[in-house]
TrEMBL record:
<dbReference type="Pfam" id="PF01156">
    <property type="entry name" value="IU_nuc_hydro"/>
</dbReference>
<protein>
    <recommendedName>
        <fullName>Inosine/uridine-preferring nucleoside hydrolase domain-containing protein</fullName>
    </recommendedName>
</protein>
<feature type="domain" description="Inosine/uridine-preferring nucleoside hydrolase">
    <location>
        <begin position="62"/>
        <end position="366"/>
    </location>
</feature>
<dbReference type="InterPro" id="IPR052775">
    <property type="entry name" value="IUN_hydrolase"/>
</dbReference>
<dbReference type="InterPro" id="IPR001910">
    <property type="entry name" value="Inosine/uridine_hydrolase_dom"/>
</dbReference>
<dbReference type="InterPro" id="IPR036452">
    <property type="entry name" value="Ribo_hydro-like"/>
</dbReference>
<dbReference type="GO" id="GO:0016799">
    <property type="term" value="F:hydrolase activity, hydrolyzing N-glycosyl compounds"/>
</dbReference>
<comment type="similarity">
    <text>Belongs to the IUNH family.</text>
</comment>
Amino acid sequence: MEVSGMSLNAKNLENLHTQMFAEACYSSLTARSRYQGIYTGLLSCRARSCSNSGSTMVKKLLVDVDCGVDDAQAIMLALAAPDVEVLGITCVHGNTTVENVCKNTLRVLKACQRLEIPVFRGASKPILGKTLSAGHFHGHDGLGDAPDPDAPSLEMVQKEGAVAAMIRIVSEHAGEVSLVATAPLTNLALATRMDPTFPQKLKGLYIMGGNTDSRGNTTMCAEFNFAADPEAAYIVLKDFQCPTYIACWEFTCRSKLPWEFCDAWLAQDSDKARFMKRIFQHSIEASSSERSQKEMVDGMGFVSCDSYAMAAAVDDSFVTECERVAVSVELTGSYTRGMMVLDTLDMMKKEHKAFVMKKVDLEKFKALMMAALK
Ligand SMILES: [Ca+2]
């Protein structure tokens, strides 16, 4: 993996971690340089999993979604990935209403015959500001307005609320759970306000959201998930000290797949592929609109935004290059509210740095995506 221009071969990095892990069991390491922080972050994860023998092989995920079409794609990717256990899916406002998000999540789980995974209802509005929706792209119901008369009943949504469930599940598996957030970060911000120890119990946090080059897809300078709740994004990027990977808007565009891949992906002979084809049609058509073309960075193509954050969570070798930098969110700018801020000058003097994803293994991504609809 390459970090901030420092090239690290993935195998060498793994060997280095193994060697350092033995030392870490006896002594705590202090980050002495900008780069050493990556080792200590990963080691602390391993040290925690050390006390949970037998559970280190399976990746435990908690997924927070505003289930539009790319959330559906990300969920299906996780469910098909080997050695991944989805402990629960928490729902939040975003692409559509939280009620639709719950329903959509159940529809996705039904399509994958995985309705045993618990679904929790979360925040219906952002902490402050107006509620957005992305109906122009995902359809008003979030899944392309494709009729589904056999959709599971909302009675299948758990009685326990999403924020309480997040805190409980992460406490029950302290140090083992990676949280994948592919939506406005309202539930996560509320969780850390309800239980300040919540972030430190996470193994890692994987976010789809924000931007690196001030390119907006919702406002001039803001990406949808951060624009839909800037205060929540601010709280999460400030309070969550666990290893944090961010798949930003421009990165997902630059990591796009050709539409030919999408055609072959949807043409697979399976119920899951037929389901995806139905719910994705609206977005495929919307992708060619003048508005969508302006939003895109570096040309057109198939961008399954949320799937990049999910792929990073399910496969440690997926991310091949990151920028390690402190990040925050602009809250007050009249043009820039919701824009992610990268402190490349280190002026915030923030100890916690995020891993902003730069490059990924696209062949692995294609394989994970293909498997999702098999
Ligand atoms: Ca989403």
